[in-house]
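Hi R.,

As promised, here are both runs. First protein below:
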Amino acid sequence: MFSIGGGSAGTELFSRMASSPSSRATFIRSTIQVARKYGFDGADLDWEYPQTQTAMNNFGLLLDEWRVAVNNEATSTGKPRLLLSAATHYKPEIYFNELCKYPVASINKNLDWINAMCYDYHGPWTPDATGAPAALYDPNGDLSTSNGLQSWISAGIQRQKLVMGMPLYGWTWKLKNPSVNGIGAPAVGIGPGNEGAMLYSEVQQFNAQNNAKVVYDTQTVSYYSYAGTSWIGYDDVNSVQRKVQYAKSLNIGGYFFWTAVGDQDWKISRLASQTWTA
């Protein structure tokens, strides 16, 4: 499948496209043409994120019309029906200037699955304190993967259409005081990496080269490491295994990683696959 959009694409272009029947039709027609021309099995919409309820409603209309179009195209050509998916917020609602709720009924009716992005709970946008970027549990609130998945289920998503996202990268901070180094420790901005981001493979290299202290936090089911003032929050073998077991216990559709290039010798990917199929 090919994906359209992404975090750097912004929301405005998608909002304008989804706001009228004619622009939605143009978008839908072009996705089918691209998929068939290049031999893809379907298309994924990565709109991050609809920021008003009107945009969310238009997102639902887009899905309605997209499904009709791919069904009609398959019928008329005799080809297998194209798959449709979407990347979504980790919860079925987002608050910007107003509370915006995803059109769950339309998702159930029209998409083959959603990729819930269960990560980036903390990062450079929260520079004053360290945090677990993709915590399974949040002992101090509801900023967690478990809360996100349960919220989607409570909102009525068909479980097999819900896919849990996990990151193969971490976020870094610069500690205010190296002796205060747990989750939630005071920080004074971002740490090493590319604007505070480090691939999982890079985290492993950093830990080895700097003799970093590695901690598995059982409350959040996440890892962090620190060396001097550098602090990194990320996922590793145990936390990924626990997350996959949790997702499997919910009987949801599966899991995905963003992004496979961040793995180290396929270590995490292989473990996750073995855990899911065990």
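And here is the second one, sequence first, then its structure tokens:
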Amino acid sequence: MKKVDLNNMKLINELTNIQNELLPKVILENSFDVNEIKTIAGVDLAYWDVNNTTYGTCCIVMIDYSTKEVVEKVYSYGEINVPYISGFLAFRELPLVLEAAKKLSNEPDLYMFDGNGYLHYRHMGIATHASMYLKKPTIGVAKSYLKIQGVDSIMPKNIKGSYTNIVINNEIYGRTLRTTENVKPIFISCGNWIDIETSTEIVLNCINNMSRLPIPVRLADIETHKIRKQLIENDLGG
């Protein structure tokens, strides 16, 4: 596959149109009974460059929602053909995400992404975009704030579980959530087929004393660094 030139405005317009066409399929309501969630899968990606070529690996770590124990881990890797540009992350990452998801022995009840969902210029962050293909509820969990239309996030109180809504044009895009006292907050947003209250509840239920990040995302992040190191050492993907 040829590398995609995102400096081509025609292509950017095409990708924007795809996002706009998918938006009506986004439903910020629960499509499930929260009490029936048994497994959650964390998703993250890591990259590296070899000879001017970018490679990536996507790791998915599924946990038991009740015990927080790891149920399964899978990964995919390959050449990245879409350069990074803000607002179009899903087009860069989705191929590897879907390839990794196919390797899961069992489908998780919910996916949690290291990235944004509804908190996006066109409400189509990776967590939301991926839901269209994974056919499961999704949540976006970001470590840094995506500033949209000049709107700053408001710092929540220094109490675990406190939050402030990210409101743009009178619409809630996501939340700035304090998951641990005396530690920087994270930024969560609905992906799809889930509401913001349930997203907040699930994220907080997946927090332990190891990190400000929910367990599925933290474990997926750790796994991507581990797999990337192995692939580089074995000259795979490069």
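A quick note on the second one: Helices lie at 9-22, 89-101, 126-134, 196-205, 215-233. Let me know what you think.

Best,
J.
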